[in-house]
Design goal:
Layout: H1 9-12, E1 14-19, H2 26-42, E2 46-51, H3 55-64, E3 69-72, H4 83-91, H5 100-107, H6 109-118, E4 126-129, H7 135-142, E5 146-150, E6 160-162, H8 168-176, E7 182-186, E8 190-198, E9 201-202, E10 206-209, H9 217-221, E11 227-229, H10 236-252, E12 258-266, E13 271-277, H11 287-294, H12 299-308
Parallel strand pairs: 1-2, 1-3
Antiparallel strand pairs: 4-7, 5-6, 5-7, 8-9, 8-10, 8-12, 10-11, 12-13
Helix pairs in contact: 2-12
Length: about 325
């Protein structure tokens, strides 16, 4: 019979922080991984880092380092899409966060939206673009303005706002350089928010404010003008309602443990779900640590709580 485990540094054993990888988000992952590793070491955890840029090297490192479990700090394809989760499952090595299914579904923006729509959850209309020939469908179904996105990328990589049919071809070129499958999504006018999920709790919402057209890669990682409001400024009943919606959206994709749900709130206070990140950024300036701090959870405690998600289902 399975019993609950009270995690300790001894319970965790040797923890490998997977970071880097070979996706377009490699540099951000290296920063997240370094912050996570330091927090684990500060908490007395026997932790080591492994750069997963080469799969064969990862296999050898897991064996030679005698790893007991993994803290996954990989962003993007290969780390957030179920691939490394399946690899670790086959090796019998517990890992933080979502499993294979939840990771794969949430990495696919089109599948994510299909599931939300089927579940009756609010998300902007979209259309799949599999080739340049599909661009006419965007004009006829979604209209303008709209936003063009690679289906399998994160960190707003390859995303463009399109104001008329004249801009579709350039946006297609920009996104197609990162993915073979794209979506065109209805443009929502309103405020952008994010909800950090930790266990079964949605942490305080963060409202994002940027002078950019939208919260793009530069606004996330390079701009000094981006503002983060936490507390977010919403009335408490509305914030609680939105936090509940984000948990529903998280559960619908079979995502577990921790993550982040991004959404828009239009002028009529109608929420529109955008996407789920199963391995969000974990630097001291990232959104999940920011929300955790507002909830009274410091970086070391946050990383510890996320690591606890790797011991679910184990017997004592």
């Amino acid at each position: 019979m399975m019993t609950a485990v009270t995690p300790s540094s001894e319970t965790f054993g040797r923890v490998a922080v997977l970071m880097g990888g070979s996706s377009a988000e490699r540099e951000i992952s290296l920063q997240s991984g370094a912050a996570v590793l330091q927090a684990l070491l500060d908490s007395g955890v026997d932790a080591v880092s492994i750069d997963t840029q080469h799969t064969q090297a990862l296999l050898e490192a897991l064996k030679t380092q005698q790893v007991d479990r993994v803290f996954n700090a990989l962003h993007g394809r290969g780390g957030e899409d179920g691939v490394v989760q399946g690899f670790l499952e086959l090796m019998g090595i517990p890992c933080t966060g979502s499993g294979v299914l939840g990771s794969a579904l949430s990495m696919d923006k089109y599948k994510t939206k299909q599931i939300w729509m089927a579940s009756g959850l609010p998300t902007p209309d979209c259309v799949l673009i599999e080739s340049r020939d599909d661009l006419d469908v965007v004009t006829n179904t979604i209209g303008f303005p709209c936003i063009i996105k690679p289906v399998h990328e994160g960190s707003s990589i390859g995303i463009s706002k399109v104001d008329s049919s004249d801009g579709l071809d350039k946006a297609w070129e920009n996104a197609h350089g990162h993915d073979q499958m794209l979506i065109a999504e209805e443009w929502i006018v309103g405020q952008e928010y994010t909800a950090a999920i930790l266990g079964r709790e949605s942490l305080p919402l963060i409202r994002l404010q940027t002078p950019h057209t939208f919260y793009d890669y530069e606004a996330k990682y390079q701009s000094e003008s981006t503002q983060y409001h936490c507390p977010c400024g919403l009335e408490a009943p509305l914030e609680e309602k939105l936090k509940g919606l984000c948990l529903q959206a998280f559960d619908a994709l079979d995502t577990t443990g921790w993550g982040r749900v991004d959404f828009m709130l239009d002028d009529s206070e109608q929420p529109w779900l955008i996407e789920v990140n199963t391995v969000p950024g974990m630097t001291h300036h990232s959104l999940v640590p920011m929300a955790a701090k507002q909830a009274g959870i410091g970086m070391n405690e946050l990383v510890w709580k996320i690591l606890e998600t790797s011991v679910r289902g184990e017997s004592s």
